Amino acid sequence: MMRRPMRRGATAARINVLVVVMALVVITAGLRLVQIQGLDPQAYAAQANSLVKRSQPLPAVRGSITDRNGQVLAQSSPAVDVTADPSVTVAHADAIAAILAKYLGGAPADYLEPLTRPNTRYAMIKRQVPAHTYDLIRAELAKAGDNAQYGGGIWTSTNSIRTYPAGTLAANVVGVLKQDDDGVFRTGAYGFEYSRNTSLAGVDGTEVYQASPAGTKIPLGANEVTPAEDGTTYQLTIDSELQWTAEQAVRKVVDSSQAKSGYAIVMNVKTGEVLAMANYPSFNPSDLKSAKADNMNNKAISAALEPGSVEKVLTFAALADSGRVTPETQVFVPSKLSSADLTITDSEAHGDLRLTASGVLAHSSNIGTVQLARQLPKADLVSYLKSFGLGQRSGIELPGEATGWAPPTNMPDYSRDQVAFGQGLSVTGIQMASAVAGILNGGIYNSPTIIRSATGADGAPVALDRPAPRRVISEQASALVNQMMESVTGPGGTGSGMALPGYRSVAKTATAERYDEKTGRYAGYTAGFIGAAPAEDPQILTYVVVDNPVKGRYGSTLAGPAYKEIMTYALPRYGVAPSTTKAPDTKLDW
Question: What is the mean pLDDT of the chain?
Answer without folding.
Answer: 90
